[in-house]
Amino acid sequence: MTKKLKTSYVCERCGADFPRWNGQCTSCGEWNTIKEIKLGAVSDRNQRAVGYAGGRSEVKLLSEVNVTHTERISTGMSEFDRVLGGGLVRGGVILIGGAPGTGKSTILLQAVASMAVRGERVLYVSGEESLQQIAERAHRLKLPADHIMMLAETSVQAICEVLDEIKPHILVIDSIQVVYTQDNDSAPGTVSQVRESASFLTQYAKRHNLCVFMVGHVTKDQSLAGPMTLSHIVDTQVMLISTDDARFRILRADKNRFGSVGELGFFIMDSVGLKEVKNPSALFLNRQTPCTGSVVTVLWEGTRPLVVEIQSLVIACQYGNPRRLAVGIDQNRLAMLLAVLTRHGNVFTAQEEIYVNVVGGIKITETSSDLAIVVSVVSSLKNKIIPQQVLFFGELGLSGEIRAVGNGQARLSDAVKHGFKIAVIPKANAPKVAIAGLQIYAVATLSEALDVMLGL
């Protein structure tokens, strides 16, 4: 039986593999990030298994595959269940990432404690903290610790041997960057070790119908550390984000094979752990007095509406180059909206500095906030106060038209619940039946929307 040494060249930033060293990574465009990685000796006769089956499987017709209803396991936290698509799925692998101190271990400890009380066998494997530290955290959070089994181990093979003995239903790996497989000679945390360890655990989970939570580290630009392959291996990838004031936590699903992508869960951090926020719109909508540049819009995040406030500040340029600063909004989209405002709204902002902010630390990724952003800029520029009972939503096209957005009826219904009386929306989103207590202005162009705004 012969052995051969494998060498790979991997980009430390994005995890792309190359057959030879290059000065620039063709995947992410960074320079001098490709490093040589020793993959260790692999037997010709005992190659690593690739895929979930771990070997050759029988060929079947798609109609012959047994389809059964998947029972969901509740984590005991409705916001966590919402992000996961309704709860855990047997055999599913969830990767949860986040910056240090956001509460990844805390939310997992709270979730597994709730599931263990309901009869689920839970094994918590810690590779970064001692078991005493975890026990102290559970005591501080006042969690029942009688049903959670603990293990301090970093070897994947040793962990699987323990799994064969106690046969748990739920496994927590904290974290995937510190575990290693004995088949690879590289150090824990390297690209190859993270990839092989995650693949090994995923194959085990699929074969034994085991739910696995993996904790992942992030890089300095808040992206998930390790190879991009890690995101493809797992079934669900969620990120736990802290707001700027560090009071609130936002759980976002970046990938989910069992639910919708982009779903958000909201929590507040206090002395006894993470608590759910049942009404996140009230969290981000906390205006005291009316002011210029403040406009409310309704976003659609995952499967529910979210009312947020957008603020703009327009001031005369003090220097030769006016600044354009956006927080929570894509900088390029703000530049495009200002160009449309100049061309089709006859509002010129070339000599003004413009600052736009989404209150509460939310990052807007959809286009339904275009109209609200433009109106907030005009409100600050013309010193026009928008009444607090008015909201705007709609996508703005390059020719100045106001385009329809999805789930318009649900957005309006949620706005009524929060006390809004007037809504300026796209003409295509106008409801066929009047909504009690809500006056609707359906506009087709940007100029019509600005006329309505100035006449309020």
Provide structural commentary:
- This protein is of the alpha/beta class and 456 residues long.
- The chain has 3 domains: 3-43; 72-277, 3-Layer(aba) Sandwich (Rossmann fold), CATH 3.40.50.300; 282-455, 2-Layer Sandwich (Ribosomal Protein S5, domain 2), CATH 3.30.230.10.
- It is built from 11 helices and 23 strands.
- The strands form 6 sheets. It has a 9-stranded mixed sheet. It has a 4-stranded mixed sheet with strand order 15-16-18-17.
- The N and C termini lie far apart (83 Å).
Backbone shape: globular
**Helical coverage, percent range:** 25-40%
CATH fold-level name of the largest domain: Rossmann fold
Given helix and strand content, the structural type is: alpha/beta
**If strands are numbered along the chain, what order do they take across the biggest sheet?**
8-7-9-10-6-11-12-13-14
Number of helices: 11
CATH level-4 homologous superfamily of the largest domain: P-loop containing nucleotide triphosphate hydrolases
Radius of gyration: 26 Å
Identify the CATH class of the largest domain.
Alpha Beta
Main β-sheet description: 9 strands, mixed
Number of beta-strand segments: 23
The percentage of residues in β strands lies in: 25-35%
**Residue runs with pLDDT of under 50 for 5 or more positions:** 41-51
Q: From the coordinates shown, what is the CATH architecture of the largest domain?
A: 3-Layer(aba) Sandwich
Mean pLDDT: 88
What is the total number of structural domains?
3
Gap from first CA to last CA: 83 Å
Pfam families: AAA_25, ChlI, Zn_ribbon_LapB
Family: Belongs to the RecA family. RadA subfamily.
Motif (RadA KNRFG motif): 255-259
Domain RecA family profile: 69-218
